[in-house]
Amino acid sequence: MTSGVAVILAIESSCDETAVAIVRGEPGCAATVLASEVASQIELHREHGGVVPELASRNHSLCLRGLVEKALAAASVSMRDIDAFAATSGPGLASSLLIGSTAAKGMACALDRPFLAINHLEGHLLSPFIDRTEVPPHLALIVSGGHTLLLDVKGPGIYQKLGGTRDDAAGEAYDKVGKMLGLPYPGGPEIEKVARNGDCRAFDFPRSMLADPHLDFSFSGLKTAVLYTLQREGTGVSVADVAASFQQSVIEILVGKTLRAARTSGRRTVALSGGVSLNKALRAAFLTAGSEAGYEIVTAPPAWCTDNAAMIAFAALLRHLAGESSPLDGDIHPNLPLA
Ligand code: KG4
Ligand code: ZN
């Protein structure tokens, strides 16, 4: 266990956002995010309708140095003030993970500081607690473009998986349905926008696996149901009604399964993280159903829901304060599990 204040610089480059953050913290105190810089590649990938790995990794290497300098300037610290360097080591695109991980290792090596390899999912999971003094035992739902995970969190680093998706992740379903509806990539925020003007009862899409006793998810049947509806209804269909009905189905599945998991685990706090947790309708549904059932619902501020490096720096800070570090010859892990 390290006592005293620590300053961590972390890099996130697991997919299509290059991000650098600097976080300062000490045991028992809320962490301070001194800088959080994100260079989004959304525009770059938009014309391809999804992430192109080769373009992503090239762009990470092009903008990383500038982002590190920007973060240091924003935080008003120098390289010498950094106590440990961290990077996402997985899961993610191999060629993208390599860029951030190699850069952080290089800086750690040059400055003779520890390096911490961080699981991207642990970053998301801890993100709702960055500005709190502790991570309490809770039930966590991570909903992103690549993952839909329910975990029982006993404390930092002690996670038990309760359920996950058997096919598409929730964000992936949003993105694929967005594409079917002719909306720009990524589909999640676009569907949320158009759904505001739609009738969420217009189409009765399936709530797959909601009634099943296990805590796994499935979104591919819902996606196919949207496709068949679009084929059946033709060009006259209301995009807003389809979007709203699709979103309603996703929300009911996520809220229903998560609150069931909370009941089963006996946790009173439920934390939401990941890009899909930005969705205002989803947050509102969780707040209504959760508070009616007596749960505290904790969400991250919007900037820490989609991919960012502050969540990676915070996860690294907790591990550094606990006396942990990672070997410099450790590999990246594109399929790294969390629990
Ligand atoms: O956490 P994230 O940035 O990256 C991954 O680790 O996957 O999540 C990105 C996902 C995308 O699928 C995107 O469509 C979805 O989050 N997303 C949303 C919203 N904003 C982003 N989904 C629904 N509603 C939103 N407002
Ligand atoms: Zn993510």
How would you characterize this protein structure?
- A hairpin with a 4-residue loop joins strand 1 and strand 2.
- The radius of gyration is 20 Å and the shape is globular.
- The chain folds into two domains: 143 residues, 2-Layer Sandwich (Nucleotidyltransferase, domain 5), CATH 3.30.420; 163 residues, 2-Layer Sandwich (Nucleotidyltransferase, domain 5).
- It contains ten helices and ten strands.
- The protein has 339 residues and is of the alpha/beta class.
- The model has no long low-confidence stretch (mean pLDDT 96).
- The strands form two sheets. It has a five-stranded mixed beta sheet, with helices on both faces. The protein has a five-stranded mixed beta sheet with strand order 8-7-6-9-10, with helices on both faces.
- The protein is 41% helix and 20% strand.
- The structure holds 5'-O-[(R)-(carboxyoxy)(hydroxy)phosphoryl]adenosine (KG4) and zinc ion.
- Zinc ion binds next to helix 4.
